[in-house]
Every structure is written in C-alpha cells, then in structure tokens.
Structure of Fructose-bisphosphate aldolase:
Amino acid sequence: MPIATPEQYAEMLDRAKAGGFAYPAINAASSQSINAVLQGLTEAGSDGIIQVTTGGADYFAGHTVKGRATGALAFAKFAHEVAKNYPVTVALHTDHCPKPALDDFLLPLISASEEAVADGGQPIFQSHMWDGSAVPLSENIEIAQQLLPRIKAIRAILEVEIGVVGGEEDGVQHEGSNDALYTTTGDVSQVVDALGLGDQGRWIAALTFGNVHGVYKPGNVKLKPELLGEIQAGIAEKFGTGEKPLDLVFHGGSGSTDEEIALAVANGVVKMNIDTDTQYAFTRSVAGFMFQNYDGVLKVDGEVGNKKAYDPRAWGKKAESAMAARVVEATKQLGSFGQSQS
C-alpha cells in the first residue's frame, strides 16, 4: 500500500484509541531496517509507523556527510516506493528533534512538505516531533505554538514531549531530577491552554511517567502508567471534555512489562516508540550468523572463505527477519496484531 495520507494516519490513531490498542513506531536508519519493519507489520497484519531520528537521518545520508535533512528525505522517498509492495498502511514520522536540530532537520522537512503540498501533493512525513524536553516548559510551548500552524497547514500532526524521558537517544541525553521524569497535570494544562485540543491543529503528547531511553531490566525503572490516567482525568475535568482527551505516546519502553504496556495503552497511548529492542534483534542475528559461519565469512588459515556466507545479503536477510519478528512481538503487546484495515 502507498504510505498513509494525512487523513488515513489520523483515522489510524482514532481507531487505535477507540479500539483500545496502539501502533508500534519503529525507528529505522537504513533501507534494511525499513524493509524489516514492513516485513514485520505484514506478518503481523498490522498497520504501523516508521520513524527516523536526527542520528538515523545522518546515517541514511552517509555517515561521513551527516546531512540529516537530506537523509530524512531520502529515507522517506525509499519508504514511499517500497511500501507499495506491502499490504499494510504505514505512516512516516520524524522522531526527537531538540532545539539545536530545528534549523537543519525539522524546519527544512516542513518546508519540503509545504512545497509538495503547494504542488498538489501530500506531505512527505505525516507527523513530526518537536522535543522541547531540554528547555523550560514555557519555551517548549512557545516553539510548539510556532510549529503547529505550519504542521496544520500541511495536514500533518505535531508530537510534543512534556516532561523528561531519562537516558540517552542519538546523543540527546537527559539527567534530570527524578521529579522531572513524571509529567504533572499542571504541565499538561499549560500546553492545552496554548495549543488547544485540536482546534489549532492536531498534536499528540509524549508524557513522562518514569520512562528511560535505552536498556534496562524490568523493575529497574519505576514506571507509573497509572499517572497517564490521572492526567487524562484532570484535563477532562478542567476543560470539560470526554474521557481521555489526549492522544498519548509511550517513549523509553524497553524493558517494560506487558502489564505496564497494557495499562499505558488503556490510559490513551496510541503510539509506542520501539528502537533499542529492534536494534538488538537485528545485531544479535548478525552476531549469531558470524559466529556460526566464522570460517566462511573469514579467510581462515589462508583459505578463501565462502562467498555465499560473506555476501551481505546472506546475513542481511536473517537480520531483517529477526528484526521483523520483534516488530510482530510489539504488535501483540500493543494489540495492533491483526488490526490492519488495508
């Protein structure tokens, strides 16, 4: 199927919230990882989201070049073309753009979509994340207010982060106090006062409830997914809306238990970012192949090796399938397995 239109993506999120499930949003940084996500979603019968960070876009452009806007556009063009061969609907999203990367990542991509839309086409990405977690909340909101009208004009969705996800992702590291790892209803109220609840443009929120990017074992991070329900109730009461007025995103979920994920989804999470686990699945498969075929991938003791083993396609196919299997697992955890309407 072609990449989702803005209307299809909005409908995806609405259907997830109404149906009590969420979509996996998988970070990709290469054509192999894009293919792996598409394979996994197809095997799961699930629609989903493929996203790219600043570092992923740098890598896609060529690691010696670091042209992140160019890399993101190339990433999107590749995804738009190959997605046509798969029977699921996929949206494209740009992940974690901190303030220093606005000028060489997010803003050029919005401009490129503005040009595409002006020419009668679709936006290149269906949603973009502004990560203002490293600046004061007032500045976070101010920049979101500047971005939202442009995002609305191209019919895309803005993702904002309210609070601080701990750990590190693509060089963006947060060491904030423990209190900063838990978003408050007051914080979210300020955002709603400024951005509205859809009337000024659609936005989704990554609230923090103890999340940490990277690797950790279950129990080592104190997640409080019940906090999401409390914030939803507080916003509904203050602004006189129906229950769960916010569309939420779960960041930093590696190591979360099935119960924690289920409670977060029940409290309005419609998108869960997945990166660390799919990276490991990909690389673990490659490592296993190399260990099992060491005398084929290496020219040991003057031998010639085995071209069929060291051909990158040999281990690449296994790596893509291993990553795809982790995507399938994610759809089962989030409830999107078998939910594709493509």
